[in-house]
Amino acid sequence: MTIIAALDNSAAARPVLESALAMGRLLGSSVEGLHIRDGQPGTAEQVAGAAAVPVRVVEGDPVDAILDALAPDDVLFAVLGARRAPGGHRPVGRTALGVVERATKAVVVVPPESRSVRPLRRILVPLDGRPATAEAVRPVLAALGDAPVEIVALHVFGGSTAPRFLDRPERDIDMWAQEFLTRYCDDPRSRFAWRAGAPGAGVVEAATLEDVDLIAMSWSRNIGAGHASVVEEVLARSPVPVALLPAEPSTRAERGSRRDEAVHGDSSF
Amino acid sequence: LADDVAVRVMEPTILDRTFEAVVFDWDGTAVPDRQADASAVRRQVEDLTRAGVHVVVVSGTHVGNIDGQLHARPVPPGSLHLCLNRGSEVFVVDDNGPRLAWRRETSPLEEAGLDAAAARTIELLGARGLTAEVVSQRVNRRKVDLIPEPEWHDPPKAMIDNLLAAVDARLRATGIAGLPDVVAVAIAAAREVGIPDPRVTSDVKHVEVGLTDKSDSMRWVLDHLRRLGIGPGLVLVAGDEFGPLGDVQGSDAFMLVPQLRRAAVISVGVEPGGVPEGVFHAGGGPARFAAMLDDQLTRRAGRRVPSIDEDPDWTLFLDDDRALRRTHESLCTMANGRFGTRGAREEDGHDTTPLVVASGIYTGRSAPRLLAGPRWDGLLVRATDGVEPDRVAFDLRTGVLVRERRMGAHGQLRTMRFASLAQPEAMALRAEGPSDAMAGGPHLAPPDENELERGDDAEVHWARTRSTFGGGITAAAVEVDDVVDGRRRVERIAAYSAHRTDLPAGADLVSRARELATTGFDRLLAQQRAAWARRWEAAEIAIEGDPDAELAARFAIHHLLASVAGDGEAAVGARGLSGPAYGGHVFWDTDVFVVPALAAIHPQAARAVLQYRIRQLPDARRVAAALGRSGARFAWETAHDGTDVTPRSTHDTSGALVPILTGQHEEHIVADVAWAAWQYARWAGDATFLSGEGRDLLVETARYWVSRARLDAAGHAHLYGVIGPDEYHGPVDDNAFTNVMARWNLRRAAELIEAAGHDEAEAAGWRAIADALVDGYDADTGRYEQFAGYSSLEPLLIAEFADPPVVADVLLGARRVSGSQIIKQADVLMLHHLVPEEVVPGSLVPNLDYYGPRTAHGSSLSPAIQAAVLARAGRADEALKLFRLACRLDRDDLTGTTAGGLHLATLGGVWQALVFGFAGVRLDEGGVIVDPHLPREWRALEVRLRPHGIPIRLRITPTDVEIQTELALALRLERGPAVVVQPPGGQIALPQRRSS
To answer: At A134, phi and psi to the nearest 5?
Structure first.
């Protein structure tokens, strides 16, 4: 299986390739570079060459090119930069946005200021308590096989995602978390973490506090809806790469049911 | 008989189940005619009763005819009843023959009316040219022959078509349109002579005018079966005349009363006019009927898994949802007060929580938890092709859990399990399934975390788990596992014993397991049904117009009753016997939320809870002494004994240690225990309790409060540093709930010792402190301040940031919430709910208006109680919304923690909201006070209670209250005059008021 590393001539190229290689080692997959010629002098091919990663150079629209490269069955996912230049909390670039919106496979978006990549040892998995979200994450957990990584299953309690009742919160949250994990992240490597407040901020905050190496979150690929604000915020502010896992849109019935129950919340990322 | 195999192939699906009762017409159904040899039917009836089936013959004729022909003598555990004389008599049959069990007695006036009705019918028919004559005077009816001609003297059933034609011709010759015309004449005649509800039937040859018909028989039968826990879905009804004859309703159609729905109704008759909807026309006459009885005998001999009556008003149907599996296990907990078994799938282990626990049996000295016992209901189930999702149904009426799974070409897996209420040490499992996909497995499986000591004695296996306190849980089981016709049958009967400090020996249970196995699954099941029926007789609730709320109420009551035994002592944890959450620890939930319901519907169980508190008194005294105080200071959270087992700290998300303060400061538990004791004594009418064993629960707690209160310079008494029910704030000073409950405690204890003529000086001291305790009441606003300084907190309303219910402390942070007026649950309003006599009259509404918008309802205890006080305030429709929330709390897993067990306090709250809230029932010295406030969509609310120990049934409608009582009952409406309702009851009109 292959991981596509989309390399441009910006400062993002190095962290993108390093992230792809780290994930390739974890999953036992090869990495292939993809560069879309943009007429700019740059470093994409140099970075790939230095890492002995084959790079395919193509021309055309970057979004289309990356999606084409993702299409073959043996391609697992693509890794690409969040934006060209580092500089803190800035919106994700147009290319990254275009790819994640149209891709039907996972896409890992790497911030250019991402710290020096180390072997993946801890992954933050935000879960909103919807079966569709958990389903989107399940293949990732399966793909990790026996890899020695810790899964931090994060739930952000908000107005509609908090449990309605906690009799003794200091004790009930553990009980609640155990049930949450059993339902939505039934992996022996997983542990539960929670934040309260806005989901995007909660994810970014937890990523820092938990010192994770990757955020793996499902999303509905619906950038036009309100859901995207969480993804946009995470992509803009995450200190670590963010793997976006396309989730099947939840059905109306499911949304209604979860809203009624409001057990583990219903806000989709 | 016809070829047995061929008959079975033809049986409709509705007959593919095991019936617990068979009700049938005699002539034409069981026998071809009155002269036929009935010895084959006799053998079948006797065999059926021997197998546990209740057999009922329903006929229009008299006992001499039926018993003379049938002459069956039933063998227990089943029974034989003869419902004869067209609904007027019931005979129970035993070795000595039939004995009259019930008769519709008539007055001389009614008898004269029947004579007059028959005569008038003949007169009216004669006026139209038809000669008819009275041929017999039966019990409660008169029979008029419409064709008194020799050739039609005694026509056999087989000639019904010819008879019909002859009668029809005779009628038409006189200008009478047909039999319906005759029936109409008879009805008119009866009404003309003053019979208000004449029952007129025709068997073509006759028209009969009576006071009863077969509908009375069927109602009696269904009521009789209900008392045995047998619902109509477990009844087979057979007849031969359900359809019209000559356009007149067939005689057996009278058996089709509305309450019979879900029964299998079969006609074996000719039915020339077809059969009514809901009746399966099998035809075939008595031979077909005999084949059906044979099939039932075969099913019983083959130990087929029985059925439950799948009454939607009483049954919890659960989809097979992997994510909700553990929640469903809690919902389907099979418990009998002594032992609880979660309703896990028999083969489950991984990612589920199968668990067997025993009431009051804990392990772990530093952090005690309910000890897990050996598991009795495990099976080996192999995955096969074509498996469909499980279909699980839990019968709340009988506490029986059934499961079905279609396994493609392999067949079907069916299981039935229950924890015996009649014999609380007994558990029973029966299963059937494809032999290549199901097997029995270990008789007793180890729980996840505990080691199992095992042994066996011939066919009996025993196992036990040991507690750190020296006690434990021991079980012994007997299993039958065989294969017949490719179908594996597993039947396992287990005997359990548990003790707090002495581990029961396995060998001691072996003989008990053998005894239970000898009793057998079927008889244990019959006992189970009957035992639950007796429980429900005193506890049933019905809500007309709201089936979902009704089912929720029954769910609540079932689990309340199942969680507490009716003798000994009962340590009732926050999740009862349904799960491991909180280690099974006991909180105020039990005293304040569970005990009131039990005291009113199962007082022995309430008494058992109090026995647990009585045993804790020495520990409670020690704690008080250690704190330098007097009396008894009950612990906030207890398990094996009275030791406080509240954790002292936990870790927050950052890993920092967070103290848990409830153990030290939530002292209202002291008064809560006293309040529970008082509630029990009053509701049960147990006058000796508070002068005997229960006395110290009030007296010692009063002594504690005296030593706990501090007097200021002005002579006001204060309780500093406490936490009230609203745990968002605390410790605080002078929490209104704690202070007023303490005041109530002091006053009731003073009354108690004054009445006994004991230390009156001490009582006077208690009264003085009670009077000095501040309660935060402000006469200007009509409000109680929840605690000193509450009014000056940030005036935040819950609607400003979320729709309740919401866990405000999690969302906003504990610090922000504690600095605001947001409260977790009713606190001041709990006083209006628990001790309305201690609060200022008229203060409910101002406090409701003030604290309602500030309540997050973040506690599962909150919605039901808020619903109760809203209803009390006349806001029933508003109350209904919160009531529904409480109803759904476990069933829809609104907390996300029902997997750890049911929220027993919420279930108790549901009952309280219904009885104390919507029905508005209270007790005082004078009797029962009723002040109902029904939501607009409820047509009626019916509750069963035992106020002062007197069994009563109240049926409340928007216009009146109907009372059934077994003894004279003093009752009054709020602000109304007291009346004494004599048995069997009466009706009181409600003053009409504006709807909420």
So the answer is: -65, -40
- Answer yes or no: are the C-beta atoms of B310 and B322 closer than 8 Å: no
pLDDT > 50? residue A254: no
Instruction: Give the pLDDT of residue B604.
Output: 97
From chain A residues 77-96, the ones with a CB under 8 A of any chain B CB are: none
Tokens representing residue B432 in the block:
């059937």
Write down the pTM of the prediction: 0.93
Decide: residue B780, CB within 10 A, 0-12 exposed, 13-18 middle, 19+ buried: exposed
A7 Cβ neighbours under 8 A, 6+ residues apart: A13, A16, A17, A33, A34, A35, A44, A45, A47, A48, A55
Q: In angstroms, how far apart are the furthest CA atoms of chain B?
A: 109
What are the beta bridge partners of residue B235? B21
Residue A258 has pLDDT above 60, yes or no: no
Angle formed by the axes of helices B904-912 and B876-891, nearest 10°: 150
- Angle of helix A62-70 relative to helix A94-102, nearest 10 degrees? 40
Q: How far apart are CA A216 and CA A141, in angstroms?
A: 10
CA distance A218 to A111: 18
Place of tokens 């929330």: B885
CB A230, CB A156: distance < 8 Å: no
Comparing CA positions, the residue from A113, A112, A111, A143 lying closest to residue A125 is A143
Q: Is the pLDDT of residue A253 over 60?
A: no
- Rounded Cα–Cα distance for residues B742 and B675 (Å): 10
The residue from B46, B271, B727, B878 that is catalytic is B727
Assign B993 a pLDDT band (cuts: 50, 70, 90). Answer: low
Q: For residues B195 and B58, give the distance between their C-alpha atoms in angstroms, rounded to a whole number.
A: 24
- A188 touching B, CB under 8 A? no
Q: Which among B483, B41, B427 is positioned nearest to B303, based on CA atoms?
A: B483
Q: Does B51 touch chain A (CB under 8 A)?
A: no
Q: How far apart are CA B440 and CA B380, in angstroms?
A: 6
Residue type, B138: R
Give helix B862-872 / helix B844-851 axis angle, nearest 10°: 140
Helix (H, G, I), strand (E, B) or coil at B27: strand
Mutate to test the interface with B, among A138, A156, A167 (most CBs of B within 10 A): A167
Cβ pair B858, B805 in contact under 8 A:
yes
Going by C-beta distance under 8 Å and a sequence separation of 6 or more, which residues neighbour residue B665?
B721, B722, B723, B730, B731
State the alpha helices, DSSP H only, in B32-75. 39-50, 63-70
Q: Please state, in angstroms and as integers, the Cα–Cα distance from residue B943 to each residue in A218, B222, B287, B932, following that order.
A: 50, 21, 46, 12
Query: Closest to A163 (Cβ–Cβ): which among B326, B660, B896?
Result: B896
Query: Please, is B984 exposed, middle or buried when counting C-beta atoms within 10 Å of its C-beta (0-12, 13-18, 19+)?
Result: exposed
Residues 6 or more apart whose CB falls under 8 angstroms from that of B276 comprise B242, B243, B253, B256
Does residue B212 or residue A227 have the better pLDDT? B212
Residue B655 has pLDDT above 50, yes or no: yes
The phi, psi pair for B366, rounded to 5°, reads -80, -40
Q: Residue A85: its pLDDT value, please?
A: 66
Beta bridge partners of B696: none
d(CA B524, CA B530): 10
CA-to-CA dists, residue B690 to B614, B672, B724, angstroms: 12, 15, 27
Q: How far is A17 from chain B (nearest CA, A)?
A: 33
Q: Is B573 on the interface with A (CB under 8 A)?
A: no
- The DSSP line for B308-351 is ----TTTEEEE---GGGHHHHHHHT-EE-SSEEE----TT--TT
Tokens in use for B308?
Answer: 């439950």
Instruction: State chain A's maximal CA–CA distance in angstroms.
Output: 62
